[in-house]
Amino acid sequence: MILDYILRRLGLLLFMLLMLSIFTFSLAYLFPGDPLSNLSGVPSNNFSQNTQLEDKYLYNSNYFTQYIAFLGRVFQGDWGLSFASGDNVFSHILDLLPATLELSVYALIVSIFIGVPAGILGSAYYNRWPDKLINSTTIVGYSMPVFWLALLLIMIFSLKLGWFPMSGRMGLLYEIPPTTGFMLIDIALAGFPYKGMAFTDALHHLTLPTIVLAMYPTTVLVRFTRESMLKIMDQNFIKTARAKGLNRRQLILHHALRNALLPVIKKIGLQFSTLITLAMITEVIFSWPGIGRWLIDSIYQRDFPAIQGGLMAVSLFVILATIVTELLYSLFDPLSRNQAHGKV
Amino acid sequence: MHKFLLTLLAVTLVGCLDSEERVIEEKSQGLVYCAEANPVSFNPQVTTTGSTIDIIANQLYDRLISIDPVTAEFQSELATDWKVSKDGKSVTFTLRQNVPFHTTAYFTPTRTFNADDVIFTFSRLFDVYNPYHFVGDASYPYFQSVGVDQLIRKIVRVSDYQVRFELFNAESSFLANMATDFAVVLSAEYAMKRKAAEQEGLFDQYPVGTGPYIYREYRRDNLVRFYRNPDYWKHDVALDQLVYDITPNGTARIAKLLTKECDLAAHPSSAQLSILAQREDINIEKETNLNVGYWAFNTERPPFDDIRVRKALAHAIDTDKIMQAVYYGNGTRAESMLPPTSWAFDAQTSMPLFDPDLAKSLLAEAGLKGGFDMNIWAMPVSRIYNPNARKMAELMQSDLRKIGVNVNIVEYEWNTFIQRIGEHRHDSVLLGWAADTPDPDNFFSPLLSCSATFSGKNPANWCNPKFDLLLAQALDTTDILMRKKYYADVQSLIMDELPLLPIAHGLRFQASSADVEGITLGPFGAISLANARKK
Fold first, then answer.
1. For tag attachment on chain A, is the N or C end more exposed, with fewer CB atoms within 10 Å?
2. Across residues B197-222, what is the average pLDDT?
3. Is the Cβ pair B259, A168 closer than 8 Å?
């Protein structure tokens, strides 16, 4: 049963990847300029170089053969060269993706730790002042554009009060060897150099971007958890439990919470795609050296191989994250496996 | 669980309290400079991009000689003495002894600086037998545009510490060109080591010089890190570390200066200077500078090959408005190609005045009564000579619309921009030039000569034999009055032909944190941080 479900999901994953790769491949032809240099990242200059490239990219064969060759290169990590830097796009992505992931993961953790309890609190005090307070705060947070919030926080906490820095992952004078690409882990691996100051500095740099990025998913989680709790609390088994004389604390902790949190888990996974989109904006504003800022710079520089590779990497990542949370969710909730068709 | 949360809270609070101490310790070890663009190379020979030269030239390298910014006389650097022969065709340099090259992760020198390094460095420019001549497509834009590569006949090793440059003809600007930021000395031993490992391509990316700082790492779009050179021959270097924070956005550079993330910000925008001047913790330095901001036409591309069209466009621009809105009064309106502080300056009476009606009639004369479409390429970064090219382009766009010319503004990332201008893909471009030497030739040969067209440095794509002849005549003589006369002719020829329209000369600004000292801003050349230190 579960195997069947997993196979169905994998089938869906494969189909999505196929569509994604076809789309990415066709971008080389859709972008302005020479498709060959869009694919390879080598500006077409001289004849001999061109013939060499045409051979490598099977440029004179039909589109299908070219597509298969493209897939082969994708798996080999040969994603073409960036126009701007002349380096392999894939190595850029490997360098930059961890920074984006780090920021997104921390933001997600923050939003779970704040959003879920706040949602529970809201439902427990339904229509009383804590609920109303949480509700109105959520609406403010929900309707605030990310870039505006970011600029506001920079204005107040960086420029006015000077509490937090406004750019980058850490003070540039600290030199941390990039082992994993995750800053906090790298600092820990380097053995907390500079008397641990590098670590606190990295935390300082993380604070504002994390708050900004966590804002939207937090509000979504608050609202969703609250709704879900209220729905559960209305059901008969809760009424029965209440009739048996359980107090509110017991009711919520032992009966309602487990059931209410199941859909929330699914929602958390779905937040990842929104999070990556918002991360791009956050990265640009906070000069965070991640994949989003790079992608936007690449668009500005008309760096087509980089745009192609960046889009592929980001979409690939979002698709994988969604499928993984779906699978996790199905492990927790056997009922969901009965769906006949895939759904994303 | 509660205990855990409390601990977490405590740790965070301690972190906040820590910050004061952190700042103090961090500041003592280094300086952060917010630079406006990625360096395109780590060898000044192969680029003329000012943003790159500012980062690398004076920090990693030394030259044989330099020019004193005040007296404009030559000073000794790696050469202790130099003698020019009577006929001016040979120059002998006596070299400084015991100058060590950098010891880096990728190279350990076994000998100190000597004549071989000088011969290797400069023969690379012209000698096809130099193993590095063709590395990087044999492109040495500055030297090729001023013709130094055509000038040197050979370089003779007189002894370990003496070299003689033999020239084809005496040229008055030779020593001045040897004193530019591009004429740095590279290590021959390091070059041979790279060649032995067949890694010639890495030679210009991983630098070894004799300068006050040593290359450590470069992360694109992020930072460049240099360490102190403990064995610097000239003096002790106060900073342990020098980091360039790559921040293309001008406002972000100022903001980082305010939050103390940078100690120095390159090219603060004139619009923000008044705010910065009110702060006590920030110093603003202001220095007149030899530069010119201009609007160049691609003269090979119709309709800009027609002088009447170029004149019409020049008459359509309201320069007064530009001076107010772009330079905020911190610039001088151009009266010639040369800035008024240059000794060869000659104010031009034929400078095109704002006259839309004349512009329209000139266009009609050229058969373009109905107007046309064109593009203006605007630099994406602010430079001394043009603090905000985008805004300038927008002002020009609205001016030109009135004479029926539709303007499309084109922007690229700075290094891509420079590269594409070199390929002459533009109709017209807003660019400029900041001088490397006080010699007036520096404004003409690198920009508008025929050889500059071929090396891709001539933004007007303009090659005029009469112009080149005048430049050659001016260089052939050392008589200052004769040179002045030739350069006056050169300046009026530019106004007659108008391959480009000089717009303004900007002031050089540097914004720094008040605790930074020892930064020297000169009227020409790149910034030097050799003496920089923190109070």
1. N
2. 92
3. no
